[in-house]
């Protein structure tokens, strides 16, 4: 590892922007591709449902519980996984995560009983635990707070992009490969869609660096520019950064509850969107796949525009609150017009765009007052508690669908939770989470 030489002058904004363009082109597209593969493997069960429930005689309740079991394993191992990543480095740990989830995702093709379904979904959650918060923590080691909103949005845009391409791809596999080699379309889907994650395992080991300090593709001067930019976020040595500080912080636990409400909106779209479209009157698996791409195309645009504006203004709360309220509105519209494919799709567009945008904007909030191990543990805890929504949303929607014969009532309930989340964000003082210049160093520490 080379040691950056002492600078002769401090960088100006043009030099800083040039360095971060180089960093972003190196990191973001690759991490985006990795997360796209990850998210596709996580939620493709929503498309498998279109065939496997009839073949295996599973009810909506069995599907809901099985889809939700992913989050049991994910939640239990989330914080430990992120702490390990902080200790051993991103390269090895992210590669390990991707390898294990690829193998388990492909094994989903072997499911024949509800118990096998539950166990493999649980193990998939264990395998993937730590990936999202790990990457978000990793990015905080490269980017200062003022640049994180847009960067987080670009990375998290992999969720809607995975759905834009994954929906039509999954629908095409279901329809085209069904019966080939004695396997059903849903079995082929699990096998084929696990391959990119497996290949990316080896790409991670080649492409990622644990930090800018050991990146051979950066000059000493460029490393200094990054160090200087990051130093602006941590001007004093007593900035809280311990594991205990994150676990004891009331702000961290409040943000965990808020993220739970946002995640409810995300996962009701991810796991039930194909079913909602199908029940609105669309029967072709390929057409359903193509229609699921529409809401997420709008979502990509909305989340990047919103987060870029938040970075420019330094305002974080309302850039999260408004998308939460938009999600609630979209879910209500989807419920009201459940029998109309066109109007239901309009509601789903608003809901998907709102939920994705709220998620991208949200993760700038915890990053505003945590650093070091606290950031690794705190972001993991928030994501872990928030992802209980994955278990709750899939199970509750499945149960209510069985009881009422439709998903409408559950959409209203989740819309109400989104409103609650928006109101809770207002309880966090703007000066704590807004960018430098709007909050003091002391207010941005991890304190209860």
UniProtKB/TrEMBL annotation:
Keywords: Membrane, Transmembrane, Transmembrane helix, Transport
CDD domains named among the record's database cross-references: MFS_ExuT_GudP_like
TM region(s), chain numbering: 23-41, 61-81, 93-112, 118-139, 151-174, 186-208, 252-273, 285-306, 318-338, 344-365, 372-399, 411-430
Bilayer topology annotation: Multi-pass membrane protein
Subcellular location: Cell membrane
Classification via InterPro entries: MFS (IPR011701), MFS_dom (IPR020846), MFS_trans_sf (IPR036259)
Domain Major facilitator superfamily (MFS) profile per the UniProt entry, residue ranges: 27-433
Superkingdom: Bacteria
Primary location class: membrane
GO cellular component: plasma membrane
GO molecular function terms attached to this record: transmembrane transporter activity
Protein name: Sugar phosphate permease
UniProt organism field: Mycolicibacterium chitae
